[in-house]
Write a structure and sequence with these properties.
Layout (H helix, E strand, L loop, with lengths): L8 H4 L9 H24 L6 H8 L3 H7 L3 H26 L2 H19 L3 H10 L7 H19 L8 H14 L6 H14 L3
Helix pairs in contact: 2-3, 2-5, 5-6, 5-7, 5-8, 6-8, 6-10, 8-9, 9-10
């Protein structure tokens, strides 16, 4: 714009109709991310009955802002679940690059086990929302199976893991381990059973 040009209405009023609302969207996104981070910490420390007011306070926003992003407790729990599932599934690619396939798979199983352990207290809320239709049915199993498939493919390529195993069968085995080792089960037993799963996948 030259010095003798008048600023346009959009330039004069950013964020208003005809202008840009990017700063407002960025602010709202930061608020949402702060709320999810605060909720993740709160649920990990306690359970899904923690007061929403405390989550808003930890995120540095008002309770009204929380409800604008998450109209119900179930919606907030679902957002936390989705964010942590993203972390688990996204970690597979990095582990494949960093470790031999069988070690990468075992390290990923340990991370997935930690995810499952912290979600036990949230499952009641999630299942209620999924059953009522107020929350979307998650594609958790499909995403977990895809992650396991990446380890199996690399293991088959290098000869470290069997090439005749279906990823969904391994998912069923891992989930079976988690179901058979409840909240009161010792960590040693869980680790031993996951070791047996990996051993079964060796050539």
């Amino acid at each position: 714009m030259t010095s003798d040009q008048e600023p346009t209405p959009a330039a004069q009023h950013p964020g208003r109709p005809g202008g840009t609302d990017r700063p407002l969207r960025a602010h709202a996104r930061r608020n949402r991310e702060s709320l999810v981070a605060a909720a993740r910490a709160a649920f990990a420390a306690a359970d899904d009955t923690v007061p929403l007011e405390g989550i808003a306070r930890e995120a540095g926003v008002g309770i009204g802002t929380l409800y604008r992003h998450f109209p119900t407790r179930e919606a907030l729990v679902e957002a936390v679940y989705a964010a942590e599932l993203d972390d688990v599934t996204d970690s597979a690619a990095a582990l494949v690059d960093e470790l031999p396939p069988e070690q990468a798979l075992r390290a990923w199983m340990k991370r997935y086990a930690a995810f499952v352990a912290t979600k036990r207290t949230m499952l009641g809320t999630l299942r209620k929302g999924w059953a009522s239709g107020s929350l979307a049915t998650p594609a958790t199993r499909e995403r977990i199976t895809a992650a396991i498939g990446a380890f199996l493919a690399e293991g088959a390529r290098t000869g470290a893991l069997r090439a005749d195993v279906e990823a969904d069968d391994v998912t069923a085995m891992v989930l079976g381990v988690f179901l058979s080792t409840g909240a009161g089960t010792g960590t040693a037993q869980l680790e031993r059973r996951l070791d047996l799963v990996v051993d079964a996948l060796r050539p």
